[in-house]
Structure formats: structure tokens, C-alpha cells
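Please complete every field before forwarding. Incomplete forms are returned to the sender.

SECTION A: IDENTIFIERS
Entry label: holo-312
Bound molecule: zinc ion
Molecule representation: SMILES string

SECTION B: INPUTS
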Amino acid sequence: MTLLKKRLPCLITAVLVISFFLTLSACTDASHYDKRETITIVSTTTMLTDLAKQIGGDKVTVFGLMGSGVDPHQYRASAGDITKMNSADMVIYSGLHLEGKMGDVISAQEGSGKKVICAADGITEDSLIKNNDIPDPHIWFDVSLWKEAAKTVEKGLEELDAENKDYYAERLESYIEDLAELDSYVREKSAEVPEDKRVLITAHDAFGYFGRAYGFEVKGLQGISTVSEAGTADVSRLADFIAENRIKAVFVESSLPVKNIEALIEAVKARNFETNLGGFLYSDSIGDEKNGTDTYISAFKHNIDTIAEELK
Ligand SMILES: [Zn+2]
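SECTION C: PREDICTED COMPLEX
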């Protein structure tokens, strides 16, 4: 009895100390609390991850599935990706079969009743470039089409989080201004390249919308998807074209191996003409913080600066 009496204050102190630390840990876990207070978005490509952040600001936490340099045509969702999607409030994908190997995964998300946004949804049929009736999915290369994608993402956020409707609308408005500035910049830079030199040759047909919007003839070694390999006939045909038209430079893409373009340069050499490796362009992914190209706008500027410098 006396022993218990002696130990009782110790026990009380211990309980107090433990509850103090429990309270303390609950308070210091604020970051976790904040995360649950925001809308959780899972996006597929790096362009969309940036777009979701631009529009959602501090009301959203965005998890991008694909990193910089990842090819979306070939990307397969991992078990971890599916877990992330399952626990997200919203999923954003690009559409028009860009994520060609994620169709079932995206359908399953749509079927679960989750808010799933297809960024290409707001783009009208007659704005799409089609090859044999298949729409070209690389819509981000025409700034005016990416503006439509921004509107679609904003609309989705408004529907999901009506309380912050004005916040999203304001961010959209300001982002549309930034896009208009980018569009003018791309036009100015394009104008530095003489009209007869505006031929853009890249590893795959990602730049069709770019060509249409900014007045470049565009030729890719592979088709609008990277799923089928470029054959020797493709290399040969393109090499003829480059040698005949004396095109100064061809470009590699950040999300594709350089070997196909190197084979093309060699084939041009065999035709007694030398074309340069004109540097790399961001095609199906944007860059990273280290290179200052981690936003859609900065990656697009990198591209047009590189193109203008090499072709003018
Ligand atoms: Zn592509």
C-alpha cells in the first residue's frame, strides 16, 4: 500500500509526460493535416502536372505519375500508380490516346465514380489534326489549344471544390494571360527564321500542332505515336528530303533515344550533305528544376529558342 502511494506520483507524472508528447506530436504533424485539407490530384504527364499546379495553386496537392523524359505513349501504370489514383480526389489525363497503354486503368477510375478529367475534352473536333482519322494527341504544342485544356482543368476543380470557385477562376485568368504572352514570344522567335527555312525535323511527329500554329513544316522520323519503330525506309526518305532541301539541323527529343536521329544524320552524310544535331527539344514531357524548364511555359521557351537559333 505504502509502495503504491509512493509510486503513484511517478505514475501520474509518466501519464502526463506521455500525453504531453502525444499532444505535441499531433500538433507538429501539421503538414499531414494540410495535405488532407487540399484536393489531391493525380496527373499523368508532366505537362498536366504543371497545369494542375498552375490552376489549383495551394488548394491542391498534385502527384504526377510520369517524370521528365518519360514517354507517355509507352507508359504503363504501376501498382503504386493505381493505389495513388484510388486515393486521389481527382485524376487528370491528356486523352486522344496519348496514354495509349493506360486505357483500362483510366476507364476503371472513371467507372469508380471519381472525378476524372480528360484535358483534351474541351477541344473542338475541327481544331484537331487527324492522320487517317486518328487524332494527333500532342495538343500542348499549340498554345491556344493548351488554353482550352487549362479551362477544362479549372472547370473540373470548380465542380469538385465549389467553395474555392473564385480562387480557381482568378488563377485561370492570370494563367491565360501568361499563355498569351508565351504565344506572342513564340511568334516573335519564329519570325526570326526565314520562311523557307522553317522546316522542323524531329524523332517523332509530336510537333504537328506547333507547325500548324507557328508556320513550320514538320516531319518526324516516327509517326504520331512512338509505339512502332522507325524503319530504314523512313530514314532513307527523310534523309533524301533533308539533303535536297539543305536543312541545317535536325532535333532530338527529351523523351526518346537519340540513336534514330543519329542514324538519320549519317544517312544525310551519305548523300553528301551535312545537317547538324540541333539540340534537344521537350516533346512529350517538360524538363526539370535544375535546367529551369520544369514548367510548360519555360520548356516551350527552351524549344523555340533552340529551334530559332539552329534554323535561322
Ligand atoms: Zn508523342
